[in-house]
UniProtKB/TrEMBL annotation:
Protein name from the UniProt record: Cullin family profile domain-containing protein
Pfam annotation, one family: Cullin_Nedd8
Gene3D superfamilies: Cullin Repeats, Cullin, Chain C, Domain 2, Winged helix-like DNA-binding domain superfamily/Winged helix DNA-binding domain
Record's keyword annotation contains S-adenosyl-L-methionine: no
Keyword Ubl conjugation: yes
Length: 749
């Protein structure tokens, strides 16, 4: 059987098939295929029919010339499609419109792809050999090109209009057949055969124009009717729906273009009107703490180039206005109230500024997603009002006083340890906004000195903690002296223990009274006035005993006694009862004079103690004119003059057995500012020399700007001060002006 089948097959190969006869046979197969596609009653191809059709083409292409009909079959393959399109497909499409036309198109395109798939299988031999050798378009491409040239090119404009009409219907809330649109738009993509040009040029560009026009109309009415939050809600919803639209039926490449169009029409065109809406714009949202709406504003505008800049600008203006209002409020209160209440108000101001910072930092982190623009806006806003003075006090001083209040015993801020740590953290953050950090450091150092020396510090751990925070924020140089002060106190305690051991081992060196000496390192501590006061004999002995002890430890250090910082406990033997008096060393020196005489004139005291008029007036005022009148003054007036005389008040009494007699406070502000100005001169000199040493030759303007840049971490240098220091350095032969160009400077090594 196999042999006879083989012989029969061989004889078939030998028989030449002419073109007309072969094509007639192929037409039966093509007609059958068309009937199947049209849904007419027709059985499917079985494998024998498929093989016969394939073999017919194979035989017609492998016959010897002139019976090799490859070229003619290639042409007829295309003609088969053209004939089917012209006779059946186009008439069916032209009689339908709108959505019905789209459905018909989807059906026809689907059928066409099936027809291409079957015919290209029948004609497969052409693809393998003839087309490959001649470099002709493959069968699949020829089939699809027929549809593009005959159907797509004629109808794509109508199809595009029908699709866009349906999209707009959906935008207006009507239900549409999304699957249909997806299938239609797939035709635009597939017809490009790997290229997106057809989809982009014939559909997408028109769809984007229509979308822009649609949202332009919507926006123009919404901006008039809606509040800012309502407008943003609608915009967010529209953008969400457009993204869904892409997911459901548009090509994914359309999403960024479509979103950009919608954003432009809804958010860019009306940005100013929206943000500046009087009762509901960005300012109103900030004023009324509308956190959700502000978050939405950020979400909508952060994807738009420079979209957040106006929002950040309004945020900065709002925070600045709130900060300025706090400063003004504190200023007004300080002007209208007594000095002690004013200082409380200044403390309240710092607390409120911290709260303001906390509040808007939450906005920056949560509403504005930590965006750098808003961090910058917050920083610039705080820099504006954090550098204003309140009732003559700079913000640097206020901040230092606030810290002092938290860290000293009996301060007005009663907080838990965690709350103190938290507050100190926030204070250090505020310091970042203050331009005169060196002024803060000096005020802080003065107050730290008082806390340490008079045992007013509430907790050593907190003292060290804030120094660590300041060091992280401003660098090691900023805190080196303060850290030295804290260390000094620890060493001083050890020193005192050694002194007490020394006294125990040397009975001859008894000072006669309990003596505690705190030895400090000059460079770490603020400068204090030191006089050669004529000490009472009891105190002279103390000084000599301690000197003897200190010389056993070191011979290379000189002790300078700062009596103004000393404290004495005296027993006052009054008629009613003895009272312990806690006074300063100077006050004690005055009072001890009355152990040997009952009455002394102002000039007697001045001569015996060798004090300045200014200091003596303060001392005598504290002892004779203030709350505790230990001395009786003649005449009995509220002020001390050089003609007054003083007498021990034996009749003095008080319900307490121990009283502290304070000295009138000295305003240290002027001294601190003078010290800081002096330090700044040195800092400017050092910066100029550093810059010129590395650059050798530099123009005036560049030298000034580099100097400002180097110093601005600690303070805002005054341009005039820099110029003055430059002139001074020229006279001291560190710099010289260029002989030909007065604006150029040279470094003199």
């Amino acid at each position: 059987v196999q042999e006879s089948f083989g012989n029969q097959s061989f004889r078939m190969e030998r028989k030449t098939i002419d073109l007309e006869q072969g094509w007639d046979y192929m037409q039966t197969g093509i007609t059958k295929l068309k009937r199947i596609l049209e849904g007419l009653p027709e059985p499917q191809f079985d494998s024998e029919q498929y093989m016969m059709l394939y073999t017919t083409i194979y035989n017609m292409c492998t016959q010897k010339p002139p019976h090799d009909y490859s070229q003619q079959l290639y042409d007829k393959y295309r003609e088969a499609f053209e004939e089917y399109i012209n006779s059946t497909v186009l008439p069916a499409l032209k009689e339908k419109h709108d959505e019905y036309m789209l459905r018909e198109l989807v059906k026809r395109w689907s059928n066409h792809k099936v027809m291409v798939r079957w015919l290209s299988r029948f004609f497969y031999y052409l693809d393998r050999y003839f087309i490959a050798r001649r470099s002709l378009p493959p069968l699949n491409e020829v089939g699809l090109t027929c549809f593009r040239d005959r159907v797509y090119n004629e109808l794509h404009s109508k199809v595009k209009d029908a699709v866009i009409a349906l999209v707009d219907k959906e935008r207006e809330g009507e239900q549409i057949d999304r699957a249909l649109l997806k299938n239609v738009l797939d035709i635009y993509v597939e017809i490009g055969m790997g290229q997106m040009e057809r989809y982009e040029v014939d559909f997408e560009s028109f769809m984007l124009l229509d979308s822009a026009s649609y949202y332009s109309r919507k926006a123009s009415s919404w901006i008039q009717e809606d509040s800012c939050p309502d407008y943003m809600l609608k915009s967010e919803e529209c953008l969400k729906k457009e993204r869904e639209r892409v997911a459901h039926y548009l090509h994914s490449s359309s999403e960024p273009k479509l979103v950009e169009k919608v954003q432009h029409e809804l958010l860019v065109v009306y940005a100013n009107q929206l943000l500046e809406k009087e009762h509901s714009g960005c300012r109103a949202l900030l004023r009324d703490d509308k956190v959700d709406d502000l978050s939405r504003m950020y979400r909508l505008y952060h994807k738009i180039a420079k979209g957040l800049e106006p929002v950040a600008n309004i945020f900065k203006q709002h925070v600045t206005a709130e900060g300025n209002a706090l400063v003004q409020q504190a200023e007004d209160t300080a002007t209208n109230q007594a000095a002690n209440t004013a200082s409380v108000q200044e403390q309240v101001l710092i607390r409120k500024v911290i709260e303001l910072h906390d509040k808007y930092m939450v906005y920056v982190v949560e509403c504005f997603q930590n965006h750098t623009l808003f961090h910058k806006a917050l920083k610039e806003a705080f820099e504006i009002f954090c550098n204003k003075t309140v009732a003559g006090s700079s913000s640097a001083e206020l901040l230092a006083t606030f810290c002092d209040n938290i860290l000293k015993k009996g301060g007005s801020e009663k907080l838990s340890d965690e709350a103190i740590e938290d507050t100190l953290e926030k204070v250090v953050k505020l310091l970042a906004y203050i331009s005169d950090k060196d002024l803060f450091a000096e005020f802080y150092r003065k107050k730290l000195a008082r806390r340490l020396l008079f045992d007013r510090s509430a907790n050593d751990d907190h003292e060290r903690s804030i120094l660590t925070k300041l060091k992280q924020q401003c660098g090691g140089q900023f805190t080196s002296k303060m850290e030295g002060m804290v260390t000094d106190l620890t060493l001083a305690r050890e020193n005192q223990t050694s002194f007490e051991e020394y006294l125990g081992n040397n009975p001859a060196a008894n000072p006669g009274i309990d003596l505690t000496v705190t030895v400090l390192t000059t460079g770490f501590w603020p400068s204090y006035k030191s006089f050669d006061i004529n000490l009472p004999s009891e105190m002279v002995k103390c000084v000599e005993v301690f000197k003897g002890f200190y010389e056993t430890k070191t011979k290379h250090r000189k002790l300078t006694w700062i009596y103004s910082l000393g404290t004495c406990h005296l027993n006052g033997k009054f008629d009613h009862k003895p009272i312990e008096l806690v006074v300063s060393t100077y006050q004690a020196a005055v009072l001890l004079l009355f152990n040997t005489t009952d009455k002394l004139s102002y000039n007697d005291i001045l001569t015996q103690l060798n004090l300045s008029h200014e200091d003596l007036v303060r001392l005598l005022h504290s002892l004779s004119c203030a709350r505790y009148k230990i001395l009786v003054k003649e005449p009995s007036t509220k002020t001390v003059s050089q003609t007054d005389s003083f007498e021990f008040n034996a009749k003095f009494t008080d319900r307490m057995r121990r009283i502290k007699i304070p000295l009138p406070p000295v305003d240290e502000r002027k001294k601190v500012v003078e010290d800081v100005d002096k330090d700044r001169r040195y800092a400017i000199d050092a910066a100029i020399v550093r810059i010129m040493k590395s650059r050798k030759v530099l123009g005036h303007q560049q030298l000034v700007s580099e100097c400002v840049e180097q110093l601005s971490r600690m303070f805002k240098p005054d341009i005039k001060a820099i110029k003055k220091r430059m002139e001074d350095l020229i006279t001291r032969d560190y710099l010289e002006r260029d002989k030909e160009n007065a604006n150029m400077f040279r470094y003199l090594a």
